[in-house]
Design brief:
Number of domains: 2
Largest sheet: none
Number of strands: 0
Number of helices: 10
Helix content: over 70%
Distance between the termini: 11 Å
Mean pLDDT: 84
Structural class: mainly alpha
Oligomer: single chain
Low-confidence stretches: 332-346
Strand content: under 5%
């Protein structure tokens, strides 16, 4: 195997994978902004927008009876709004562009099949998932923004993030082999799984709060946004208070890593990135809860939750790879570091 060639291929893939992940998170932020601004139905059909590939800029460009046409299709009270239409259309264009970026990532992963076949498998799977996500987006529009469909659309976006992160983490196995965890505190692994479980629970409650927000918006109207909190059920308050416990547990995790691995270890730096994201989630959540649910803050809160999910997934994968390299080095004669999968460290 040409080690130099494979090393360069890994570097190129990592760079593009990071760019692609950043783009996917940007799309999550844009999508959340579209929803928070009420522009989700700015285009009442898919993949066209008001029956056109390039949407109109003025209501006069539509048929005189367009509201009746869309009412028959199940979209009552459809009213053209140029700002909302082009906001949603821009969201779709960004989605298509990121789909092409994921396709490029899949192409760049193909030469790495000699290094680790899981890298191209995960990258190609991510591209296929983008196709399914596009179909799901069409169902979201046809359901007239039904909350359950929106949540499923969001969960699919996180699944794409996880798949891309898996491919990225696999490409970093050689790097983690140089990050020893011989002296890691044995409490770390239990604490890590506790943190992961707490995050899943917190995100699940956040999803329920978000769906309840949709129901309250529909029942009370946008004009009463500042009073939406008054109609929230009990799990909203549990979700809000639980965030402090999530932060404290992550601080404990960071303390364990600092004491056993030091400040410069990759796992320690990832944990502090997680703490920063949790702080952002808490601040944005407190703003939503105490300042009348400002629409511009909702996308920030959702982005923070998505980033936390990604960082914790990467931390878990990185720890696994670092631990496998330790096990391999203990098994190999002469202390040679092995990656645990029969592949050389590159």
């Amino acid at each position: 195997m040409n080690t130099h060639h494979d090393t360069n291929a890994l570097l190129r893939f990592r760079r593009l994978a990071l760019i692609t992940l950043a783009a996917v998170y940007f799309l999550i932020l844009v999508g959340a902004s579209v929803r928070a601004s009420g522009a989700g139905m700015g285009c009442p059909d898919w993949p066209t927008c008001f029956g056109q590939w390039i949407p109109p800029t003025h209501e006069s460009q539509l048929p005189a009876n367009y509201q009746e046409i869309y009412a028959e299709l199940g979209y009552a009270d459809t009213r053209f709004n140029a700002t909302k239409t082009w906001t949603e259309y821009g969201n779709r264009l960004i989605g298509v562009s990121i789909g092409l970026l994921i396709f490029a990532t899949a192409l760049l992963s193909w030469p790495l099949r000699r290094v680790d076949r899981r890298i191209p498998v995960a990258s190609i799977l991510a591209f296929l998932m983008v196709g399914f996500q596009g179909w799901l987006g069409a169902r979201v529009v046809s359901s007239n923004l039904q909350p359950g469909m929106i949540t499923l659309h969001m969960l699919m976006a996180l699944a794409i993030v996880a798949t891309l992160l898996f491919a990225l983490a696999q490409s970093r196995r050689g790097l983690m082999a140089t990050q020893p965890v011989f002296h890691i505190d044995p409490r770390f692994e239990k604490c890590l799984y506790l943190v992961l479980g707490m995050t899943v629970l917190q995100v699940a409650m956040g999803t329920q709060v978000r769906e309840m927000t949709d129901f309250i918006r529909e029942a009370q109207g946008e004009d009463l946004r500042t009073r939406w909190i008054e109609f929230m059920p009990w799990f909203f308050y549990v979700h809000r208070s639980f965030s402090a416990l999530v932060l404290l547990t992550n601080l404990w995790l960071a303390r364990i890593l600092i004491n056993s691995l030091g400040w410069q270890h990759s796992l320690t730096r990832l944990t502090f990135a997680m703490i920063g994201v949790i702080a952002l989630a808490i601040v944005s959540g407190a703003t939503l809860g105490h300042l009348g649910m400002p629409a511009l803050v909702q996308p920030t809160h959702l982005l923070a939750a998505s980033l936390l999910f990604g960082l914790q997934f990467l931390l878990w994968m990185s720890y696994r790879h670092a631990r496998e390299s330790v096990v391999g080095s203990l098994r190999e004669p002469g202390g040679r570091v092995a990656l645990g999968s029969g592949q050389p460290a590159v």
